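[job 4471] stage=fold_predict status=RUNNING
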Amino acid sequence: MAVRRASSTFFNNLNLLNSTIRQSLHNTVAAHRNFSSDGVGIHSLRDSMMNQMVHVDINSQIGSCMPLAAMRIGTMIHNIEVNPGQGGKLVRAAGTCAKILKEPTASRYCLIRLPSGAEKLIDSRCRATIGTVSNPSHGARKLRKAGHSRWLGRRPVVRGVAMNPVDHPHGGGEGRSKSSGNHGRCSLTPWGKPCKSGYKTGPLKRRK
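[job 4471] inference complete, writing structure tokens
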């Protein structure tokens, strides 16, 4: 008799628990249906989110990559593409940034001022990153010793005047003379090609 009473009590509690779970699930589904049927509430929520994105502070978008057409005038950018989809080519050195001067209106080009001060027209479909490149004090650091330059991969630069005649056209002679015994010679490269005095080193221009 005691076993039968215990089993009946257990099954009664189990039925009560199942009924409670079913009631809570029913209430949750009903609330979800009411929210999904309320289209006005969804549209108002979407509109408020769009307004927040429009009026968001530019400082919160630092590090974001987007096309130039989606940026405002005066935005500081870096890692700029030259051709759409090519990858960043401009303004990638430490501590540098460019500035958008003019948004694309009639044409599809955007006017940008580079760190050198030059102004360049770039396709507005090109992407760039908002903000400035980090480590602005990179150019102000001092090397501790000569070996520090070698660590950075910079090899020594030796003047041609300090060499021997077999090593450079400026080598040899008494004192510091580039003539090597022949007075009136102009400056030469290590391979004997003139590098001053208006010598034309580029390809010949085509005749019109």
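[job 4471] summary: The longest helix spans residues 2-37.
[job 4471] exit 0
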